[in-house]
Each structure stands twice: as C-alpha cells, then as structure tokens.
Amino acid sequence: MVIDGPGTVVDRIKLKLPFSVIASTRNSTSNDTEAEGWPSLEGRKFPNIYDLDYKGCLGGGSFGLVVHAIDRSDDYSCAMKFIFPPEIFVSNGPDWKSIMRECKIAIELEPHPNLVRSFGVVMRRISVEEYNTIFPSNFMTSEETRRLRAIHLDRVDRVEKIPAICITMEICGENLRQWLNETQDAPQIRHQQLVIIRNMVSGLKYLHDRRIRHCDLKPENVLFTNEEYNLPVKIGDFGLSRITNSFEVTTTASDFGTREYMAPETLGTKTYYDQSDLFSLGLVIWEVAQLIKFNKRRKFFDRLVNDQKVGLIKLHTEIEDVRELIIGLTKRDMAERVQSITDVAQVVEKWKLT
C-alpha cells in the first residue's frame, strides 16, 4: 500500500512504522492524522512540507540533514530534521531502533523549557526534484553536510524516490560549543555560567524522571534559545537516547555517544547507566565553569579521568561548590560517582552568586 502526496505517509507497511500516520501538534491540509494526547502548542499547526521555504542547512548526522524552514502562511520558523533510513535496512536492527526511539521521544515527550521542542513526525517519499529544492548545494556550508547531501542525492537519483522521516522542531540559536569558543572570562558572564549549568541539569532531570537517557550529552547538543546566545539553553538531539523500563543498565548492539564524553564503564562494553549521563554532564559543566576551549578539552579530560588530576579543576570565583560537583560527577569508578540527577539538582538549586 503506497499513499503519495503532500505530507502523507508512504510505504508505512513496508517500513513497519510503529505509529499509524503522524503525530503532531500542528494540523495539516493533507490526510495526516494527529496522535492522541499530544499537548497543545498554542495553536501552531504542523506544516505541509510543500508550504515551506527552505533557508539553509543547520547540520547533519549519520541518518540525515536538518534545515531551517519558514511556513509561508505565517512566517513561522522551524527546524526540519529529515532522516533517511539506510538502504540495507533490518526492520528490527539497531539503526531502525535508533530512528524509532527518536521518533517516539519526539511524539511522546511533553514540552520542557530546557529541551528542544518537537512539533511532530511525518513520513513521506522524497523525489529528486523535492530533494534539490530542500537541500540545494549552496545550503551545504561544511564538508560534512556536503558529503551527506551527496550520499542521499546519489541514492534518490538511482531509485527516483526515497523514504524520509521528518521531525519538525523549534529552531534554536547557536550551540554551547560556539559559546565556549567565543566567550572570554569576565565578571559579566558569571550569571550566564550559572544559568547554563542550571538549565542543563533541569533538562536532564526531566529526561531521567521519565526514564530517558540522553546518551550523547556534549556542548554541540546544547542549544541557546535563539541567536546572540539568549538563555535558556536547551538539550537537543535524541538520536542516541534510550527509553528504559527501569533505572538499571541499558544494553545495546550499537555504541553510545561521542568518545570524549563517554563514561569509562561504557567504553567497549555497550552498557549505559543513568550515571553515565551524569559523567558526561560533569565534563560539560567543567567546560562551562572553566571556559575550556575545544582544542584543550581532550587533554584536560584525559588527565582528569585517567590520571586523577583533580587539581586541573579550578575554584570558581563566584559559584560555590561547583568544583566539588564536577569532581563528584567525573569519578572514573561509577560507584564513587554522584548517583542521581536529583542529587545534582539539589546542589545546583542552592547556588547563588557570591
């Protein structure tokens, strides 16, 4: 069964999607239907992809590309993540499960001020003409996005249409990595550092309270609300996240996260715990509190985790106890590490600028 047209699902049975057609907070003029129980988004509608103007590529990853789109009907800006399932595709394999986890989180996770908000998920087939409209070559500003565009373009050229899962999200500003690289130490940023740390803890606590492990927490996945580094910050990119039935170990057939931010117990074991997220959080908090630059982070992380050089963590001039928190979160032995995000939140909530 193939249904084709603006914003509709195609080959749903073939690809065995676990949801019927669409989950969204925005109505569409197509045959899409809404998922039950999805919270209101103050009247926003899910955009028909034909009703959007595409303004640029925001980034890419192993399964697809993210573009900046504007709804012509009301000039509303959003980010559209297009996930292209691999050609050699095992319906119950790790790639499929990863895509489905991200879709499930986008559909079911209620809004939180410190998480990037998803508006809905829809699936359709993309033709060569549509692909070149959404992803023109001049949008690709990095070697990585140019490479990804070429891979998917080659595929759609060969088979005429390829399936794409589209996740519509709020559009945010720069990421925390950009802020770290551009920000210089000065008294006026103390409050910003405190708020960034609190925001990250709040967002991760919301996930853990709902038994979701992020599994790839790093500055690149923490976004400012909009341009000019406006607060609050929001945790995004749930492509590697895990939804658990308990607070025990998660085991997977695929690897987790970015190596520099992975907890020691996850390296080579393919197991993941709540405390593994906390380890990553501790490293990011350290970067924020000490303004560690990109070219220094790997050396600093290695000396802290493997050589136990806690002296590298400096006392913050105004945020009390942040050094002790970082040490507690980045212990190599998981049993010695801070045990829950609730414990972290209790510490951070007490912080005041001295």
From TrEMBL:
ATP binds at K81. Coiled coil: none annotated. Residues 52-352 form the Protein kinase domain. GO terms for molecular function: ATP binding; eukaryotic translation initiation factor 2alpha kinase activity. GO terms for biological process: negative regulation of translation. InterPro entries: CC_SR_Kinase, Kinase-like_dom_sf, Prot_kinase_dom, Protein_kinase_ATP_BS, Ser/Thr_kinase_AS. The keyword Transferase applies. It catalyses: L-seryl-[protein] + ATP = O-phospho-L-seryl-[protein] + ADP + H(+); L-threonyl-[protein] + ATP = O-phospho-L-threonyl-[protein] + ADP + H(+). PANTHER family: EUKARYOTIC TRANSLATION INITIATION FACTOR 2-ALPHA KINASE 1, EUKARYOTIC TRANSLATION INITIATION FACTOR 2-ALPHA KINASE EIF2-ALPHA KINASE -RELATED. Belongs to the protein kinase superfamily. Ser/Thr protein kinase family. GCN2 subfamily. This is non-specific serine/threonine protein kinase. It comes from Folsomia candida.
